[in-house]
Amino acid sequence: MTGRYLSAALRFLLLAIGLVGPLSRAATERPNILIILTDDQGRGDYSAFGTKDIRTPSIDRLCREGMTFDNFYANSCVCSPTRAALLTGCYPDRVGVPGVIRDEEPDNSWGYLWPRAVLLPKLLSPAGYHTAMVGKWNLGTSSPNTPNERGFDFLHGFLGDMMDDYWVHLRHGRNYMRRNNEVVDPKGHATDVFTDWACEYLEGRAGNKQPFFLYLAYNAPHDPIQPPPEWLEKVRQREPGMSEKRVKLVALIEHLDSGIGRVLTTLDKTGLAQNTLVMFTSDNGGVLANGANNGPWRSGKQHVYEGGLRVPFAARWPGQIAAGSRTGRMAMSMDLFPTALEAAGAALPTGIDGLSLLGTLRGETKPEPQRRLYFVRREGGMAYGGKTIEALRQGDWKVLQDSPFAPI
After folding, report:
1. What is the rounded CA–CA span in Å between residue 329 and residue 367?
2. Which of 89, 180, 257, 404 is close enough to 354 for a disulfide, judged by CB 3.0 to 4.6 Å?
3. CA separation, residue 170 to residues 162, 173, 181, 194, 251 (Å)
């Protein structure tokens, strides 16, 4: 017998006597991969965390049906750097993005995505994946740094850093909404628009044997805090003692959660859920001035204290990730890059900083990799002067400089 047939015979014998279980569908096929990224969602702003004044059944479902990370960090305390890290597997300043990219404000833009950086879709495509992005990009508004030019087969989203209005979708009077290279002008609340586009994409993949990677990047609950009126009223009625500031943020997050729920329901209805690895996180901590809940940790967005860096993370993959599991492993946004590639059976590039979480997700009990975690943010204005703020965590110790003009 050859080794291959001997292995098959041995597995059949072990299966017959009950020492192993049958291989799940997900174990024998390349999974679809869905990364859901929210914008400025605080570490404590979902109800599965234990927060009593918010209702997030869809995020809670991912925690209940998958694994929750108790020590997950965004790569930065602001948007663009974390997105660059997630899509390249590298610390953001290594790929040219230490701060927020604002192409519409060239004198106030603090990054440019390195042309030689290889993004996740570029590596998944040769592995046979169809790759798509829906939602907020924030890594460049013009060539060569648009999603299609950086590897995505399909784009339905917003190129800019933020919207001045959730209903009008403009930034400084400019329309950055795109369907591939076409300028589009959708109607409705941005969260609903992105949810609709994501569900349309998933419905189009149903029955297609080619696996897909969908990067769904919401702009909620980023400023401006504009929940739909019916969601605002729902929270007001339920939480009569809550401040109006907190009411608006909770309503915006609960509306966002309902959109995530529609995406999960679409996975169910199309039969895609069983073989789809879903990973959910946020790009940085919540904004305290908007009433965010960052758990027991200090400070929030724009700061390299723990409240600005710790974010939610949950992953679900039926048959591969144990439902209701948790881990204390420290991980970062950039770790999603090698995790997705390993799950897809794609080659890992050399020279990246991220570490795959797949073994942890599958319940393997190996020692946690020992590494230092580094965080950076560059910004202008009187408070920063074009300099960086930084933090470094090693084990239980952390050193930081939260102002470039203050002591370490």
Report:
1. 9
2. 89
3. 9, 5, 17, 15, 22
pLDDT of residue 29: 79
**What are the tokens at 138?**
């924030």
Mapping DSSP to helix (H, G, I), strand (E, B) and coil, where does residue 99 land? strand
Question: Taking the CA of residue 147 as centre, how many other CA atoms within 13 Å lie in the half-sphere pointing to its CB?
Answer: 31
Question: Per-residue pLDDT tens for 313-367?
Answer: 999 999 999 999 999 999 999 999 999 999 999 999 999 999 999 999 999 988 8
Distance CA 76, CA 333 (A): 9
pLDDT at 11: 38
- Looking up tokens 């020492």 gives 19
Q: Which two tokens stand for residue 205?
A: 């993949």
Q: What DSSP character marks residue 104?
A: T
Q: What is the DSSP string of 331-392?
A: EEGGGHHHHHHHHHTPPPPTT------HHHHTT---PPPP--EEEEEE--HHHHTT-EEEEE
Band the pLDDT of 368: cuts 50, 70, 90.
confident
Q: For the chain, list the domains and their CATH numbers.
A: 30-371 (3.40.720.10)
As beta bridge partners, residue 179 has: 156, 182
